[in-house]
Amino acid sequence: MRRKATLATLAGALTLVAGTAAAQTELTMWYHGAGNEVESRIINQIVDDFNASQSDWKVVIESFPQLSYNDSVVAAALAGNLPDILDVDGPVMPNWAWSGYLQPLPIDESVIADFLPGTKGYWDGELYSVGLWDAAVALYARRSTLEELGLRTPTLEEPWTGEEFMAALDAAKASGKYEYAFDPGMAWTGEWYPYAFSPFLQSFGGDIVDRSTYQTADGVLNGDAAIAFGEWWQSLFAEGYAPGTSQDPADRDAGFIDGRYAFQWNGNWAAVATLEKVDDLVFLPAPDFGNGPKIGAASWQFGVSATSEHPEGAAAFIEFALQDKYLAAFSDGIGLIPATPSAAAMTKNYKEGGPLAVFFDLSKEQALVRPVTPGYVVAAKVFEKALADIANGADVADTLDAAVDEIDADIQRNNGYGH
């Protein structure tokens, strides 16, 4: 009898498990991190934890290589085959929302009250996406370099002015110790240009597009401030301060570490590897060229596709993923900035006194998101080409005027992008 009772109990338990599994509605999710073993392990753990935490939803993840991810989403949208949950790069999100790929994210915004500004994806006054991390750029330097050149160490409260920054480059150049005084990272292309270099333009007082209306780039990308920026930018290469567009990627990776570059403009994602090879590495804030120091903001985020039949389930997964323990796990795993102060306190690098804690403060104090407009995806490519041309010696005013014409024509073709 006891054996029969045990079998009956086991059968009932199995029936209950089967019933629970059957009751879970499947949610599809696309992610950009295929090929990144650490990133994939963490996101899959979050999916497994969510699926086990409740009986309503089951997330099924499909990962894509980052280089092909956006094209895959666009193709799926045209074919009507979007998943429930989408991974989206922050500056691209407004285009996907405007194009009808995403719907507003139905979560209580009090949940993200403490999140870094760059992790919140807003378009047309509504929240569409949230990120588990952000990224920040700083000026890499050696403390010994600052001392040898007699330079003041800039702080978040008192960054270098534009004049001090150029004086630092002049001192490095005059020392004869370096192949180049400054490495802005010209070997990197694509999104690096607007992410890393448009903050310099914005600090001069210009921008990629006029954010007051988002209807034109005229006056901000070719006005006096933008021309001053363009002339400064061109001088970096014409006067031998920095390697140009022909920089070898290997030099980008090793030039500062090897001591051939005095200063390097680089992100927090490269910080841990650099710290392992440079004993006296310091991360300095962006210089202030007259309108405040600026760095880029907004990295990959999660949103709900416009065609999802279960937005409440998709939002439940996204909110589940926003727990501090997952933000900290991503930070420890891939080196990026956790989205909240409480998550930062749980990490080895971003906690108070941690080797990368400065990046959290930089992101909080200096970060500016790229123009929040569907037209950004076109304007970014135009900006990249203009900066590369100027670095290669093109006339500054003519190049910026041409960029404005191209951006404005695109805005007009798309009826103002809904602004």
TrEMBL record:
Provenance organism: Chelativorans intermedius
Family matches, as InterPro entries: SBP
Secretion signal, residue range per the UniProt entry: 1-23
Protein name: Extracellular solute-binding protein
Alphabetized PANTHER family for the sequence: MALTOSE-BINDING PERIPLASMIC PROTEIN, MALTOSE_MALTODEXTRIN-BINDING PERIPLASMIC PROTEIN
Pfam families named in the record: SBP_bac_8
Protein family according to the UniProt entry: Belongs to the bacterial solute-binding protein 1 family.
Keywords, comma-separated and alphabetical: Periplasm, Signal, Transport
